[in-house]
Design brief:
The chain is α+β, with helices and mostly antiparallel strands. The protein is built from 10 helices and 10 strands. Helix 2 packs across helix 10, helix 3 crosses helix 4 and helix 4 crosses helix 9. The protein is elongated and about 75 Å long.
Length: about 325
Amino acid sequence: MNLTAPMFHDNDAAREHLEAIRWANGVFCPHCGNMDGETIHKLAGKSTRPGLFQCNACREHFTVTVGTVMERSKIPLCKWVLGFHLYASSKKGMSAHQLHRMLGVTYKTAWFMAHRIREAMKEDVKSAGPLGGEGKTVEADETYIGRVDVDYISPQRKGQPRLKRKMKPKRTVIGLVERGGKARMVHVQHATKDVVRDILVRNADRKSTLYTDQSKLYTVTGEEYASHKTTNHSAGEYVRYEDGASIHSNTIENVFSVFKRGMVGVYQHCGEAHLHRYLSEFDFRYNRRTALGYTDSERADDLIRATSGKRLMYS
């Protein structure tokens, strides 16, 4: 990433950069979806702001930011573009305080930008499809981080007195990763067999080979997969070799490690209501890591493309 590039300092260059990425196949109207170039005209004039278009099909005006997380924002486009590149290239994340110092904006503005960038990083699971498949391996595990904002009460204990605890239980995250492929992390209120099964069957193809530890959360659901192999962590077994295959869940542990280092070392505090956005952020970067052939610039370009249709309306 070349920080001296014009798109990081000049709004016109930043707008042209956004247009080149979002409209690589031609300008389209975000209001009605019209893609006919003959009915879309760029407006010009002293009183017209740069980059303004009019769609003759629906008579609406629009710019490259309409229908994205940047819509109706007064933050300069060059700062948005730099923000996208910083979040796409920072392996363990970037705090809003760091963003506010680097961009020269207020902390409130930086916090606003950071959450909208994370919203853009959220991937559509339905269009992406399940992880794994025939002949492929998926690792699954759960991890715990922070303290829950509201203590969980199981359905069986509703109406009964709360259990006395010295500390609140931790937040639960279920993680899946396809070896050599993508990862997905999901925040759940409480990990039960039913909750874990629902996440597994929705996100991992049942033709896959499933590798986990010996947690009983996966015992029954593992029978639905082509094969289910486990390692016994309590006995000090973290990897073993069987018929030429290395059986372990170290890949998903690595995903969790990067996530936790970011949450503890960079973000330090995260409200539970926003945890799913931080998970999306780390998933996005992992799924476009250098090992899969991505550069920082390509990752940032993917992030800009993903801004479409993901507005956050709260202030």
